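Box S1 | Example of a co-folding query
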Amino acid sequence: MDLSVRIRDKVLPNPVGAASGTIGYGSEYEGLVDYDRLGALYTKAVTPEPREGNPIPRIVETTAGLLNSIGLANVGLKRFLSEKWPYLSSLPCPVIANVAGSKPEDYLQVVSVLEEHTDMWGYEINISCPNVKKGGITIGTEPDVVEDLTASLRKLTNRPLIVKLTPNVTDIRLIARAAENGGADALSCINTVVGMAIDIKRKRPVIPQKTAGLSGPAIKPIGIAAVYRVRTAVSIPIIGLGGIMNADDAIEYLLAGASCVQIGTGLFVDPTITVKVLEGIEEYMKQNNMNSISDFSSYWKEW
Ligand SMILES: Cc1cc2nc3c(=O)[nH]c(=O)nc-3n(C[C@H](O)[C@H](O)[C@H](O)COP(=O)(O)O)c2cc1C
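Box S1 (continued) | Returned holo structure for flavin mononucleotide
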């Protein structure tokens, strides 16, 4: 059975990865996550400068998912290289850097430095960041900004370039096409959905930033629909994520047109979830006489 997934000219050993921001820099999960069997580790966002992140509380549980407003807290590019990369580069699984910034130059800086100093498997470009230059609008909501940014990054690297789409747009297909036109090799679909929770005793938002990103089971149907719609709009691979809590959830994404998946919030519930999901996918493939992950891709076309 072939579980590998090709992106550009590189291969992920299996289709189940750990999502950015939920597995830190890897060392946090040492002994808990089986890195020998992880399809890919997507790092916490890397920005040029260190970031403190937003005021607490910045994670709140709701009835169907998690609200987070981390604010891209991270150690910054310099300490990423000196403190985090040595451990990450020793892992047996592919490591993909999640890259963020508040202006296009930030992304270019991070990718060009990582190009020079690491053998990173590839890059996942988090375009759900506010664009300071354009007055705070999210970079990933403007097709022309996404296409230009992707094209500039493309010039810097021959490694796989994955653009991570935000669902907080009117038509996600337009953004997906813009990334493909700019030269993206794959799309991650989806980032968190805008959400909010109110503390009724204090009569004010629970999270100081007021709105936050919703993840977990509540967003799975949104993610599935996004993958399906994006699948009809582009021809590059899609990495499906959003609310995957078990193998059946992952299989839904694969049947909707994803080539592989990531698990985020599910890792907080069970750090061994990636292996369980991988085994569940294998079992399903056996039962359905599938030989390769690419066999999933035929189904959505029949609907
Ligand atoms: C605490 C937390 C931190 C996150 N940090 C990042 C990040 O740094 N970069 C990014 O692209 N996505 C980040 N995400 C989004 C996840 O990677 C993922 O897209 C989202 O949570 C949906 O997947 P899930 O429902 O499996 O968690 C974060 C999510 C959570 C819950």
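The chain has eight helices and 16 strands. The longest helix spans residues 273-287.
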